[in-house]
Amino acid sequence: MLLKKVVGTSLKTVNLMNPVRYKFAHKLVENVENEKQEVSLDSENCILVNENDVSIGQTSKRDCHKLDDQQNIKLHRAFSVFLFNRQGEMLMQKRSSHKITFPNCYTNACCSHPLYDLENEREELNAVGIKRAAQRRLNYELGIPTSQVRPENFHYLTRIHYLDRGDGVYGEHEIDYILFLQKDVDIKPNPGEVSEICWIKRDQMEEQISTLDGPLTPWFRLIYQSGQLGLWWKNLHRLKKFEDYNTIHKLN
């Protein structure tokens, strides 16, 4: 296997065992990156929903993720993108140490929120607002050009509802839209968001995930352990068969 390592602007390739990993050596100032994460907590507003995924308002990203005195977290709308290349390998990322929620955890290609602040991300018909948010975040986190991940390229499968109280200060409580995308794209990760990426093979999924040097995010772990990820992955060529827009699956 080959590992491509980015150091500054140079690209070096060396032979390594599975999985293929891309690690980024960078000298970003620690407090600058932390400040960016803190600013986004107060400047970006998420969409609050009830258990039926009906929009009931908005609040800051901080307010959406911070546990209250009763250890509750506001339910809000989110998405998870699972990205596959033409060979059928799945991209995983390791969240940067600067992330407020679940830093240094491995997860699927991109996990984030549609913003209430952006009117076109509030559009609910055919989940087009969710797909626009996914396009925006794939560009921001992984540097994928927006022209390569248009809303019509995403396959919306279903929704899950999960709760995880994280570190006891910040956690997640989401109605999470599952989006699949199979396409070869150009990737240039933002090291303030992503510290590592790797490609996982379906027939080696359990082995490769077990060797990752960090924990999994709760949403990825729940989807993976439910068995649905493997089933969907096996059927990339006929995902329409697995569309379920009527059920919100509770995972815990």
TrEMBL record:
Pathway: Isoprenoid biosynthesis; dimethylallyl diphosphate biosynthesis; dimethylallyl diphosphate from isopentenyl diphosphate: step 1/1. One of its GO terms (biological process) is isopentenyl diphosphate biosynthetic process. Its cofactor is Mg(2+). It catalyses: isopentenyl diphosphate = dimethylallyl diphosphate. Keywords: Cholesterol biosynthesis, Cholesterol metabolism, Isomerase, Isoprene biosynthesis, Lipid biosynthesis, Lipid metabolism, Magnesium, Metal-binding, Steroid biosynthesis, Steroid metabolism, Sterol biosynthesis, Sterol metabolism. GO terms for molecular function: isopentenyl-diphosphate delta-isomerase activity; metal ion binding. Its EC number is 5.3.3.2. NCBIfam families: IPP_isom_1 (TIGR02150). This is isopentenyl-diphosphate Delta-isomerase. It comes from Chironomus riparius. The lineage of its organism: Eukaryota, Metazoa, Ecdysozoa, Arthropoda, Hexapoda.
